[in-house]
Amino acid sequence: MEKLKIVAIVGSLRKDSYNRQLAATAKKMVNDIAEFELLDYADIPLFNEDIEFPTPKSVKRVREIVKSADGIWFFTPEYNHFFSGVLKNLIDWLSRPISKNEAQVLKGKPAAVSGITPGMSGTGIAQDHLVTLISFLNMNVMNSPRLTIPNALQQINKDNRLELTDSTPYLQKQADAFINFIQSKRF
Ligand code: FNR
After folding, report:
1. Which CATH number does the domain housing residue 143 bear?
2. What is the DSSP-derived secondary structure letter of residue 158?
3. pLDDT tens-digit readout, 14-42
4. Between the CA of residue 85 and those of 32, 64, 143, what are the distances in Å?
5. How many domains does the chain have?
6. What range does the domain containing 70 cover?
7. From ligand 1's centre to the CA of 117, what distance in Å?
8. Axis crossing angle, helix 18-30 with helix 168-186, rounded to the nearest 10
9. Backbone torsions φ then ψ of 87, nearest 5 degrees
10. Ligand 1 near 78 CB (within 6 A)
């Protein structure tokens, strides 16, 4: 059977981002069933209608990758009880149709939402805002389970690498649920 394709969108550009490391852990969990591509979007410009057409190359590339996905898995940090500005900028670009004949690329795509933070909130408030946005864009959101991981430092080793312990079964549960969710929307 052909592998599913999951595209992971991490809302932090930080090299050692805990959310990026969480995505890397999730990748290992779905590896047998799904191809898992981490979207690199650090090079897209700030959205500005003056530069929307012709579409910047970096935006075209990112759109094509998103378009090819069977599901999008968001890993969001929480900035001031919101998701990050870079993620909003990316989604604003993706929300714009490529041409008059084509729907925007997020429409109907299955979406899962996770996040990790050193603080207590576990990114839950940021996730709520993100879900409002992606629902407005008619993504097919898996509302349950979502994954919020607070107190990240308890699962970080001395080299600042994420080593999930308590949260492992919850991430696995979400990974399995998302695969089933995507498959149920596909057929
Ligand atoms: C934060 N951080 C933070 N954490 C939190 O739990 N709730 C919050 O509202 C905020 N607000 C906030 C604002 C700004 C501007 C920054 C830079 C940070 C802390 C944040 O969770 C922490 O830096 C994470 O490590 C960011 O995620 P990555 O980069 O590790 O994925």
Report:
1. 3.40.50.360
2. T
3. 999 999 999 999 999 998 899 999 999 99
4. 33, 22, 23
5. 1
6. 4-186
7. 6
8. 60
9. -70, -40
10. yes
Supply the DSSP symbol for 29. H
Minimum CA distance residue for ligand 1 atom 6: 119
Q: Quick check: CB of 148 below 6 Å from ligand 1? A: no
Tokens of 63: 């759109």
pLDDT of 187 higher than 60? no
Mutate to test the pocket of ligand 1, among 117, 149, 153 (most ligand atoms within 8 A of CB): 117
d(CA 176, CA 124): 21
Q: Which amino acid is at 93?
A: W
The label of the residue with tokens 């607070």 reads 150
Query: Which amino acid does the sequence have at 75?
Result: F
pTM equals: 0.97
CB distance 83 to 126 below 8 Å: yes
- Residues paired with 6 in a beta bridge: 36, 71
